[in-house]
């Protein structure tokens, strides 16, 4: 797949935008957590809202609202749709 | 012999083989998870049919307001104030009714004891010590708890608390702690021991320890009645009676906010010293808002929390009442034991804006914060002339007769907010951390902070001739 | 089971999981993701007959409750709410170990009807361990409000295990749930759970290990699932399996046994 060129970090996604997960550059427990929540490659994710301080950000994944800190979201590479 | 072993397969052999396969295919673990999800999609796809997502908008709109840049924080503060306002306004009348009933019964008890020819010391320990301690705890604690807990459980049931964590996570991140810490603090409002146990929801051991060590800075239900009573008498007393409740609830809310700031400060300090480390990750689910089940809320908050906590308070209050009565009525020479202890504590206590009796009450209240106020009143009443306490006005008279000023009130409230956790909370901290060192720090950090803060406040007020 | 094996199992439950059953009492494990109303189901089924504590040696809550249906008594064990039981955290490990080694007579998995797909992940994981599973699609009323329709019978057919729609907060579907638990525990119902289809690379790896795993564990556990855990390099599982099934990782002891 020639996706590496077009992927962006999830943290840069604007509110309301939809994307598809390409890869996770995370390790350890966080990686497993994210995978267990169904954020596996190919999964569509929508950026829903920012918290009052701008971070964390809430994303809709498989009908569930999940908040992630920007440091963590920046390690998730996505394809904007 | 070897022939018998050969057919055996050990787990270790299989593990080694699995390891080999895994090394040649490092993504195997991820693929397994992805595959399960793909199966889930294949099953859910045909079984689930969705129409427009229009009905979601209600959730969205609520979140738009509750987590907005503009209203997110003010709404949290307002909700907290409103809860306290309802608690304070609603608790007053029932408190007095319970006090009237129980003290009428106390008079009856005294008559019965006299008729039965009971010795003075027995009447003292049982009626004036144990029963009166119990009566105070019930009258002071039950009504605010019976109002506060259902209100708080309502917020919990609605799904608001995860939003609070969402709103505040950034501040916790700056302190290199976890946003879920606020959820453990919310549990702490009910009971710090429960708050400490709830720290299990935090994944990182370092951040979990921070949450355990700072949980005490949210006042538990055992301390709320004390804060509420003093705030109503002294702070509320400064304004016209219509505003009394509003001012008192603002004071209590401000104290809670102060406690939250101390939590941030201590968390930050711990993250830079004893528990050095970077903020780890946080994954927080924001579940949809749900219509609260009033029946379940009522049951859970009243039976699970109120009755449970009240039971604990009562178990503590009866012996504490008996002991306090004995200490107050056993004289060595001219002065009771309590008088000696209080006099001995007086210099330290005065330096931090309290008096010897107040500090003694906090020390004797170590088993349960609920009994601090009853012990204090018993000390005061035994030292001076006997007086029946039923209403807040009478409480005010007792305190003023014992030289309370606004500074005593402020320092007592601050000390109450910041001082050491009760033994139950300490025991929970020991069970959760499994370490004497961290349990000791759970005790030491709040204690030191309480002394320092009260010292600074008391000394500054005196230097500036404010009292 | 003969009387002695029942007694042995009772001792095993009490020693490893802190669970005390009365003679003839069925054990039911309750699993589910967080925020799916699992505790509502637990409270609705067991009412006031509850007891909470910790799992032995772990700082994880262990809530147990009992109820009676028809002539039988059930002890329900409320497992920690987790998204997965691949055992990355202590909570997941506790849940997984109980379903796997505690051998409950039935495992009830509570799913949220409003996000079924994510919740099915957990149900499928449980189905790999035990066939005695009942799927409870909870919050069905919330789903209706959101215009989500779920074909329960299609789901049941596809999964091969009983599926019950509930709205536990209003008590809807709880009667059926009790009945299904009864049928599952007494053996009146024979489930045929769907196997997860893995991609070829995973399937090949499973096939490589499967014969040896089958020989090692016999009929104690699902060998496919054990093979998967070993392939996943799940150290916690390897520890558990040697702890609960008395497999020793050190061959020396096995030699002694063999002699």
From TrEMBL, chain A:
Q: Where is the signal peptide?
A: none
Q: What's the domain of life for this entry?
A: Bacteria
Record-annotated Ferrous iron transporter FeoA-like domain positions? 8-80
Q: Does the keyword Iron apply?
A: yes
GO MF entries: transition metal ion binding
Q: Which UniProt keywords apply?
A: Iron
Tell me the Pfam families matching this sequence.
Answer: FeoA (PF04023)
Keyword Iron attributed: yes
InterPro entries for this protein: Fe-transptr_FeoA-like, FeoA, FeoA_core_dom, Transcriptional_repressor_C
Q: Which SUPFAM superfamilies does the annotation name? A: C-terminal domain of transcriptional repressors
Its recorded name reads FeoA family protein
Q: What organism does the record attribute this protein to?
A: Pelosinus fermentans B4
């Amino acid at each position: 797949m020639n996706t590496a060129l077009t992927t962006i970090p999830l943290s840069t996604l604007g509110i309301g935008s939809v994307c598809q997960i390409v890869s996770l550059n995370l390790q350890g427990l966080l990686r497993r957590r994210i995978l267990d929540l169904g954020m596996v490659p190919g999964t569509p994710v929508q950026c829903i809202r920012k918290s009052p301080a701008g971070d964390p950000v809430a994303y809709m994944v498989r009908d569930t609202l999940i908040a992630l800190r920007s440091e963590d979201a920046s390690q998730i590479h996505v394809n904007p749709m | 012999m070897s022939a018998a072993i050969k057919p055996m397969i050990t787990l270790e052999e299989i593990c080694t083989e699995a390891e080999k396969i895994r090394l040649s295919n490092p993504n195997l673990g991820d693929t397994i998870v992805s595959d399960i999800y793909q199966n889930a999609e294949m099953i859910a796809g045909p079984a689930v049919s969705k129409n427009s997502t229009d009905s979601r908008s209600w959730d969205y709109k609520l979140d738009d307001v509750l987590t907005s840049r503009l209203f997110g924080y003010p709404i949290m503060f307002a909700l907290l104030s409103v809860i306290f306002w309802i608690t304070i306004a609603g608790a007053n009348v029932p408190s007095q009714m319970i006090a009237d009933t129980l003290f009428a019964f106390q008079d009856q008890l005294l008559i019965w004891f006299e008729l039965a020819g009971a010795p003075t010391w027995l009447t003292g320990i049982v009626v004036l010590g144990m029963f009166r301690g119990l009566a105070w705890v019930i009258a002071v604690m039950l009504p605010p708890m019976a109002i506060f807990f259902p209100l708080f459980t309502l917020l919990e049931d609605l799904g608001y608390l995860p939003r609070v964590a969402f709103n505040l996570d950034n501040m916790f991140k700056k302190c290199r702690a976890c946003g879920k810490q606020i959820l453990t603090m919310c549990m702490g409002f009910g009971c710090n021991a429960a708050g400490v146990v709830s720290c299990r929801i935090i994944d990182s051991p370092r951040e979990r320890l921070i949450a355990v060590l700072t949980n005490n800075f949210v006042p538990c239900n055992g301390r709320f009645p004390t804060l509420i009573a003093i705030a109503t008498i002294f702070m509320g007393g400064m304004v016209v009676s219509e505003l009394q409740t509003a001012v008192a609830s603002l004071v209590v809310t401000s104290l809670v906010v102060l406690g939250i700031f101390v939590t941030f400060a201590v968390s930050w300090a711990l993250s830079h010293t004893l528990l050095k480390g970077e903020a780890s990750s946080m994954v927080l689910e924001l579940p949809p808002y749900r219509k609260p089940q009033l029946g379940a809320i009522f049951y859970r908050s009243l039976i699970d929390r109120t009755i449970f906590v009240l039971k604990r308070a009562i178990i503590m209050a009866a012996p504490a009442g008996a002991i306090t009565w004995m200490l107050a009525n056993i004289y060595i020479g001219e002065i009771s034991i309590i008088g000696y202890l209080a006099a001995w504590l007086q210099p330290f206590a005065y330096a931090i804006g309290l008096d010897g009796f107040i500090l003694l009450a906090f020390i004797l209240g170590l088993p349960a914060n609920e009994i601090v106020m009853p012990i204090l009143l018993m000390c005061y009443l035994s030292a001076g002339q006997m007086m029946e306490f039923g209403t807040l006005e009478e409480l005010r008279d007792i305190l003023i007769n014992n030289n309370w000023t606004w500074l005593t009130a402020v320092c007592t409230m601050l000390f109450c907010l910041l001082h050491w956790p009760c033994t139950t909370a300490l025991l929970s901290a020991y069970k959760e951390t499994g370490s004497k060192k961290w349990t000791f720090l759970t005790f030491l950090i709040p204690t030191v902070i309480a002394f320092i803060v009260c010292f600074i406040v008391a000394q500054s007020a005196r230097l500036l001739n404010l009292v | 089971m003969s009387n002695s094996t029942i007694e042995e199992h009772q001792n095993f439950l009490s020693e490893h999981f802190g669970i005390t059953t009365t003679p003839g009492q069925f054990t039911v494990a309750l699993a589910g993701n967080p925020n799916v109303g699992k505790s509502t189901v637990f409270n609705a089924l067991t009412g006031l007959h509850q007891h909470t504590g910790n799992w032995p040696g772990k700082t994880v809550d262990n809530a147990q409750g009992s109820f009676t249906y028809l002539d039988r008594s059930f002890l329900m064990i409320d497992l920690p709410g987790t998204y997965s039981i691949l055992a990355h955290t202590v909570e997941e490990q506790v849940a997984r170990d109980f379903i796997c080694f505690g051998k409950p007579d039935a495992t009830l998995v509570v799913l949220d009807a409003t996000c079924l797909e994510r919740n099915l992940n957990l149900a499928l994981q449980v189905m790999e361990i035990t066939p005695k599973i009942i799927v409870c699609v909870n919050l069905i009323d919330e789903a209706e409000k959101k215009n989500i329709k779920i074909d329960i019978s299609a789901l049941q057919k596809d999964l091969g295990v009983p599926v019950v729609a509930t709205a536990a907060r209003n008590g809807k579907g709880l009667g059926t749930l009790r009945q299904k638990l009864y049928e599952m525990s007494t053996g009146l119902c024979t489930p045929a759970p769907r196997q997860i289809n893995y991609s070829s690379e995973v399937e090949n790896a499973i096939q490589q290990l499967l014969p040896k795993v089958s020989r090692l564990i016999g009929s104690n556990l699902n060998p496919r699932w054990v093979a998967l855990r070993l392939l996943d390099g799940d150290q916690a599982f390897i520890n558990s399996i040697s702890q609960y099934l008395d497999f020793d990782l050190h061959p020396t002891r096995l030699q002694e046994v063999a002699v």
